[in-house]
Structure formats: C-alpha cells, structure tokens
From TrEMBL:
Alphabetical list of SUPFAM superfamilies matching this protein: P-loop containing nucleoside triphosphate hydrolases (SSF52540)
Name of this chain's protein: ABC transporter ATP-binding protein
Pfam family, one: ABC_tran
Membrane-spanning parts: none
Keywords per UniProt: ATP-binding, Coiled coil, Nucleotide-binding, Transport
Record flagged with keyword Transport: yes
Coiled coil: 230-263
Domain (ABC transporter): residue spans on this chain: 15-246
GO MF entries: ATP binding; ATP hydrolysis activity
Annotated PANTHER family: ABC TRANSPORTER, ATP-BINDING PROTEIN
Family of the protein in this entry: Belongs to the ABC transporter superfamily.
Length: 354
C-alpha cells in the first residue's frame, strides 16, 4: 500500500459523479453511478469486460454525453466547464499515436505543439522532467519504433504529464505488458502519487490494484457494487486458517467452532472446511486476524489443539469475487462474472497476468 497517501490526502473531492448514467439504445452501460475520488487518491476502478469502465471515463472526460446524471470535477460541472477541467487532467484512454521514426523527446515536442503548449527551449526542462518521471530519459533520443511496449506505454504517460496535471486518468495502463512492464507501471504510479497527483486507474489486474491503490470502486454490469478504502475492504476479508493433525479432529473442531459462532463469537462471520495444497483438511474462519489467539483458546477449551494456526490477509480478489457475484436486476449487459482477473483472457488486448 502506498505510504505517501496520508500526507497528501486531504479529503477534497476531485471527481464526484451523481447518478451518472449512459445508455446506448436499450443497453444501460453505466447506471446511476455515484463515484467519489478525493485529492491524493490512487483510485482503482475495477470491473469485468463490458462493465462500463471506459464509458465512465469517456463521460468524465466529456468525450460522450451522459444520458442522465452529472459529473463534477474539481468542483466544476463538466457539462458547462469542460475546458477548465481538461486543463487539469492528463489522460490516456486509448493508446496515443506517436510518430514511429521520431525519438521519444521529439514526439513529445510534436504533442506539445499540437496541443498549443509553449515550444522552444523554455519547455526543454519539462520534456526531460516528464521523461525522467517515466524513466525514459536515457532513451529519449531513441526512435519510437524501437521502444518496447512498456516504454511506449510510459511515453504515453509522459505525454499526459506534459501540462503538469493534478489528475492523471489511466485506462488499463498495463494492457499487454509483460511482468517487468507491469512492475514499471506500478513504480511509475507510485512516483506520480508521491508527486501529489490524484490517480484514477481502471484495471483488470487485482493484485496490482491492491498494491498501488488506496481506494477502489467495483462496477458490475454498469452498476457500482462496491466503493471504499482498500485497507478496510481487505480487513473485512481476513481469515484464520486452522489445521488439525487428524481429519476426525478437524471435523470435531469445525462443529465446536460453528457452535461457538452461534452462541458467543459474533466476530466469526463464516466457517468452512476445505483442503490445502497438500490435501490436508483445513478450517477457514472468516474473522479478523487479531482473533487468532481467541480461536486457539476456544479449541483448547474443548481439548482440541491445532497443528497449525495462522492468519490470512484479505485480498482484493476475494472482495471482488463477492461484490461481482451479487445478482443485479438493473442492467441488461452480459458480463463475465467470477473471474479472478476480471476475465481478461477473452480479449487479446487485455494483458492480465496472474
Ligand atoms: N459506442 C457504443 N455503442 C454501443 N454500445 C457501447 C458503446 N460503447 C460501449 N458500449 C457497450 O457498453 C458496455 C460497456 O462498455 P465499456 O467499454 O464501458 O466497458 P469496460 O468496462 O470498459 O470494458 P473493457 O474492460 O472490455 O474495456 C459494453 O457492453 C459495450 O459493448
């Protein structure tokens, strides 16, 4: 988790949507969406293919008009004050177009010229600054066509940073990247957060999001099914794993724990008997990891002694799976549910890595 968060986070909303909705004909791509992104957030925007992430981002950037509802960025309604809002945003929604035969730095010059930024030596430090941030300074003279996919993606982010935006919006920035490329992007996002940028990141890759984001929203079929602080969401998904020496002991322990759960231990939300990788029976208890000693004591009271007992951290994957398995009657869109990596496999452009 990002450490800079506490120092930069001041609770000022940067993005606030109110009942934001987009329908394409009969298809409700985004339904009644209320999002809150605060200054200093690294905000993860999650959802399976077709759940409405890109449509939301396009509405936020004023690329398409909502069917209903509104989006307020930096306190301004984007239906009325879009130019003032866009000046403060750096975004990559689709892969930016670069000239293959021009170097990285020359491509940035072209983009700056095309978007009306100041040219000439006065901007040179800024080009180098952004290339430095994305760790491409040493490759700035290399022709774009010789860049790796990860370098191309980072040059795109450098271009989005030229005007020193407060909010950086990245739509699936790790698509198609190899593990090293994914790590580079993660480090880059952490650097941008440390520079005080607010980051809005849509992604399929849950472990990545878990590592860099402090807050997340999960979309399913155009509906917001979860929004919250990552640490809190993970805490809700903590478990305690207990292994007994013998299978019969595991069964007895399970019965004891279930009884205790009903009678006195309301801090246990669920208990299941499963098998570990060695096919040994284990008891998985959904409870705060700080309760491990209590579990030990409860078992000991019944002359049951665990061979192993250890807390398991919560994962965003567990949060996601639970959130997206909730049946939802509002929208008609077919989506792929219960896929750990938000089902990137059916789309060759998605670079989900397990
Ligand atoms: N211009 C459009 N016309 C009609 N339907 C559209 C249009 N744009 C998006 N959709 C539909 O809206 C739904 C949401 O699409 P969207 O691209 O926002 O999802 P997403 O979560 O970004 O998915 P992915 O991860 O695959 O990019 C999909 O069913 C998509 O087919």
């Amino acid at each position: 988790m990002r450490e800079t968060h506490t120092t930069l986070y001041d609770g000022t909303p940067v993005i606030s949507t109110q009942r934001l909705t987009k329908a394409f004909g009969n298809l409700v791509a985004v339904n009644d969406l209320n999002l809150q992104v605060m200054r200093g957030d690294v905000f993860g925007f999650l959802g399976p293919n077709g759940s409405g992430k890109t449509t939301t981002i396009r509405m936020l950037l004023g690329l398409i008009h909502p069917t209903a509802g509104r989006a307020v960025l930096f306190g301004m309604d984007n239906a009325y004050q879009l130019p003032a809002i866009l000046q403060r945003i750096g975004a990559i929604v689709e892969t930016p177009t670069f000239y293959p035969y021009l170097s990285g730095i020359d491509n940035l010059r072209v983009i700056a010229a095309n978007s009306g930024m100041k040219l000439g030596s006065v901007n040179k430090p800024r080009y180098e600054e952004v290339l430095d941030i994305v760790e491409l300074k040493q490759y700035q003279r290399l022709a774009y066509r010789n860049y790796s996919l990860g370098m191309k993606q980072r040059l795109g982010i450098a271009a989005a940073l030229l005007a020193d935006p407060e909010l950086v919006m990245l739509d699936e920035p790790t698509n198609g990247l190899d593990p090293a490329g994914v790590i580079e992007i993660r480090k880059l996002i952490q650097r941008l957060a440390a520079l005080g940028k607010t980051i809005f990141l849509s992604s399929h890759i849950l472990p990545e999001v878990q590592q860099v984001c402090n807050r997340v929203a999960i979309l399913r079929k155009g509906n917001l099914v979860k929004q919250g602080d990552v640490k809190e969401l993970l805490r809700e998904k903590e478990q305690i794993e207990v292994r007994m020496r013998l299978a019969e002991e595991a069964q007895t322990a399970l019965e004891v724990l279930r009884r205790v759960k009903e009678q006195e231990a309301s801090w246990i939300s669920h208990i299941a008997l499963e098998q570990n990788a060695l096919r040994q029976p284990i008891i998985l208890i959904d409870a705060p990891s700080t309760r491990s000693a209590d579990i030990n004591m409860l078992l000991a009271r019944h002359d049951l002694f665990a061979a192993e007992l250890h807390p398991r951290e919560g994962s965003l994957e567990a949060v996601y799976l639970q959130a997206t398995s909730v049946p939802n009657q509002f929208s008609e869109i077919a989506s792929t549910d219960n896929h750990t990596m938000l089902n990137a496999a059916d789309d060759s452009n998605k670079g989900a890595i397990r």
